[in-house]
Write a structure and sequence with these properties.
Elements lengths: L11 E5 L7 H10 L3 E5 L5 H18 L5 E4 L14 E4 L4 E5 L9 E3 L14 E4 L4 E8 L3 E8 L1 E4 L4 E2 L12 H12 L4 E4 L5 H11 L4 E6 L2 H5 L1 H7 L2 E5 H7 L5 H14 L4 E4 L14 H12 L4 E4 L1 H4 L4 H17 L3 H5 L10 H15 L2 E7 L4 H8 L6 E5 L2 H6 L6 E5 L6 H14 L8 E7 L8 E8 L2 H8 L1
Parallel strand pairs: 1-2, 1-16, 2-3, 3-12, 5-6, 12-13, 13-14, 14-15, 15-16, 17-18, 17-20, 18-19
Antiparallel strand pairs: 4-10, 5-9, 7-8, 7-11, 8-9, 20-21
Helix pairs in contact: 1-2, 1-11, 9-11, 13-14, 16-17
């Protein structure tokens, strides 16, 4: 087994797998460069390919002795126009264009919209965005069989281009039949997180959670403006949140996305749910070995905002420089977290503890670490809830999460500041202290003379019983004993 050194940063990096990094050796290099977790995009590829990738991740996990979260991202419904006579057509600027239910191939005046749920739903003045917003239509008249639009922005339109409907809640579920098949496959493969696309309302989360049945954690992707209206409810029902800026940027005006990103991050942080900032973070590195200055600032701002994780999409999945993209993202995060004002900026959001013993102790971990020269916080947990409480406080030192559960270790792997270690459960106070010291030394979090915070619950092994905070010092004799 190779030795795994702590990353030296608290924010996590989620890297998307794809043709550019499907080789096990490339995946290993991505992990060594700084990837903490891997995303399997169910929108592309076959189940056999995904199964092989998951096997490779688990082999990597054994090789380095570090739990690695696997995030399976469901595609969700995709609204698309039909086909054209010549494969494409040109919509005139300010001209009229009709979307109808006629399957006859379209032309410059009309095309089929094979989604009956949209007819009778749309109203005058609402927008239809085609091909990621490159074509913008405004509804003039909407009936049961056709939707007459004015082209605010025309251009070339081709077969099966995507349609976004930002101004209406679309009466279709977030899970398609393909998603249900992909979900069953992902759960059978033992993935740790499920990403739910096309979330519009809390009921979408409830349906997915019922199907998952506790076999994986559920991350709601916020990519629809309708989801913002009920954001608090969606966050409450989810295990984590993703700021999916790609679709948000299509359906909203560009200037609306940055403040929404901060609002979503803050909403998730307030309740201690991990939040991922995703999409186009280092987009130019799909083709270039170096990012733009604006992209560097974008990643840095997400880190300053206190996001739990930042995500690479096409940069690693299909780009020419996947390893370099992870390396650059790692370096940006490390540099930001070295900033003497970083912790103060991250804590600009006040996250008051709930009125429970566990939350009070998690809050105390932060204040003790700020007052005393603490090297790390050691958290014993079965479910991961204590680790989430501590992470919500954004302590100034790393958190080592000790758990007997591989499931828990992998799920907390996307949590800010968490370094998960799978170890046998403890049975006594003395064993807890000894193991906390030993693991901190073994995993590079402490040395002789260093102080640690140990957080646990008594009686041991009882979920939700966090009631003990202890500060310990690793002595020179113990250093020799544990090294020996």
């Amino acid at each position: 087994m190779k030795k795994f050194d702590p990353r030296g940063r608290k924010v996590k990096i989620l890297a998307t797998l794809g043709p550019a990094c499907c080789d096990p050796d490339v995946m290993r290099r991505l992990f060594e460069a700084g990837a903490d977790a891997f995303r399997v995009n169910m929108s592309h590829g076959e189940h056999e390919t995904h199964a092989e990738a998951i096997r490779n991740i688990r082999a990597l996990e054994k090789q380095f002795g570090r739990p690695i979260p696997i995030f399976a991202d469901l595609q969700g419904p995709k609204l698309r126009v039909g086909k054209f006579k010549d494969g494409k057509a040109v919509i005139r600027h300010s001209g009229h264009f009709t979307l109808d239910r006629d399957p006859t191939p379209g032309d410059e005046t009309r095309v089929e919209l094979p989604h009956p749920e949209l007819f009778g739903l749309l109203e005058k003045g609402q927008r239809l965005l085609i091909n990621d917003g490159k074509i913008r239509l405004r509804v003039i008249r909407a009936g049961e069989d056709e939707i007459l639009c004015s082209a605010e922005v025309g251009g070339v339109i081709s077969d099966r281009k995507g349609v976004n409907v930002p101004d209406a809640e679309i009466p279709i579920p977030a899970l398609t039949e393909k998603d249900r098949r992909d979900l069953a496959f992902a759960l059978a493969q033992g993935v740790d997180w499920i990403g739910l696309s096309f979330v519009q309302r809390p009921e979408d989360i409830a349906e997915a959670r019922k199907l998952i049945g506790g076999k994986a954690a559920l991350c709601a992707k916020i990519e629809k403006p309708m989801a913002i209206r009920r954001l608090d409810e969606i966050v409450e029902l989810s295990d984590g949140i993703m700021v999916a800026r790609g679709d948000l940027g299509v359906e909203l005006e560009p200037q609306e996305v940055p403040p929404l990103q901060k609002r979503i991050v803050n909403t998730a942080r307030l309740v201690g749910k991990p939040v991922i900032v995703a999409t186009q973070m280092l987009e130019s590195m799909i083709e270039s070995p170096a990012p733009t200055r604006a992209e560097v600032s974008d990643v840095a701002n997400a880190v300053y905002d206190g996001a739990d994780a930042v995500m690479l999409s096409a940069e690693t999945a299909a780009g020419d420089w996947p390893e370099e993209a992870v390396t650059i993202m790692h370096r940006i995060a490390v540099q930001v977290e070295r900033d003497e004002g970083y912790i103060e900026r991250v804590r600009f959001l006040d996250t008051p503890p709930d009125r429970t013993t566990a939350d009070a102790l998690a809050h105390s971990c932060m204040t003790v670490a700020d007052t005393v020269a603490i090297k790390a916080i050691t958290v014993f947990t079965g479910s991961g809830s204590t680790a989430r409480r501590v992470a919500r406080e954004r302590p100034s030192v790393p958190m080592m999460v000790l758990t007997p559960s591989y499931e828990t270790a992998r799920r907390v792997g996307l949590l800010w500041g968490a370094h998960a270690v799978v170890t046998r459960d403890i049975g006594s106070f003395e064993e807890m202290i000894a193991k906390g010291k030993r693991m901190a030394l073994r995993h590079g979090f402490a040395s002789g003379g260093d102080k640690l915070i140990v957080l646990a619950g008594v009686p041991f092994g009882t979920p939700g019983s966090t009631n003990l905070l202890h500060v310990v010092t690793l002595t020179g004799n113990e250093l020799q004993k544990y090294q020996g």
